Amino acid sequence: MENKDYNVLLYYCYAQIDDPEAYREEHHLFCIENKIRGRIIISPEGLNGTVSGLKEDCEKYMAYVHADPRFAKTEFKVDAHDQHTFAKIHVRVKSEIVHSSLRHIDPNVKTGKHLEPEDFRKLKDEEDVVILDVRSNYEHELGRFKNAITLDIDNFRDFPEKVKELEHLKGKKVLTYCTGGIKCEKASAFLLEQGFQDVYQLHGGIIKYGMEAGGEDFEGKCYVFDNRIAVDVNKVNPTVISTCHVCGTECDRMVNCANPTCNAHLPICEKCGWEMEGACSVECKENPEKRPYDGTGYYQKNTNGYNPYKGLFRRQDKEKIKQTIHEQKDSRVGADH
């Protein structure tokens, strides 16, 4: 039986942060000291993160977030795993917790009605209902709800422009969904702003729906932003809807192209993955910058000059922090092998 001593946490919280830079340093230090890895965004409008760690370390992390009154309402989606799903910890300050063209929208003021997974399951097949996927192409091509409307977008910031194509649905109940719920907070609010009257969102997204409603009628796999790349959701009536980009066979195995200048997110079967050395085309396979393929199709993102230890030495206990850093480096070296 597989030993799942680790947790993967997916979460977000819209809440005002007056000094994001100062909170970034505090938050990052906590992650370092408690062996939490992952990607966390901190902005004036809140938090957004996916992290991994031993179960007991993740419990400490959730308690730490909830202890801050600003983030007491944060809901964590918790998944068991057999190892870390990240190699490092990155805590960055950005202008938004999810990149959009909707900075004027505050989901704490206006957003669609939240539907719990079981309520979403019961409502989704009613005659006057449409299901709207607000994610990007590479995500919904791998997996989506049966009969869902998908938009031809490469990034969530393109969503507002595409809403113009949905004018004919204004008389319907619109059920929006995304991976963990964060995009729907602003997407559903924008739909209301554009004159849609009856707008809902799947609370907790696809991930929570899989955990609490069995994933019924979610076809394919759900793309996730860690080294798992794609996860199973449907335990009731699973199916595969994607095909291998190279050979066209049925395939739900997601790969990031080994050519970093391409880095396309595509389904590629295991056989073609090895034959193409993780590349999506002959041109990408022959690219001199091509990354070594290890069979997973996942590559650690470029740090772009990010210093994970910035600000740590302001504390009095410098020696303790140095020791923590050395231990994490040693554990990373072991994980990389």
TrEMBL record:
It catalyses: uridine(34) in tRNA + AH2 + O2 = 5-hydroxyuridine(34) in tRNA + A + H2O. Residues 125-218 form the Rhodanese domain. Residues 315-337 are annotated as: Disordered. Keywords: Oxidoreductase, tRNA processing. Pfam families: Rhodanese, Rhodanese_C, UPF0176_N. Its EC number is 1.14.-.-. It comes from the Bacteria. The keyword Zinc-finger does not apply. InterPro entries: Rhodanese-like_dom, Rhodanese-like_dom_sf, Rhodanese_C, TrhO, TRHO_N. The keyword Transcription does not apply. Catalyzes oxygen-dependent 5-hydroxyuridine (ho5U) modification at position 34 in tRNAs. HAMAP family: TrhO. NCBIfam families: PRK00142.1-3. Belongs to the TrhO family. This is tRNA uridine(34) hydroxylase.
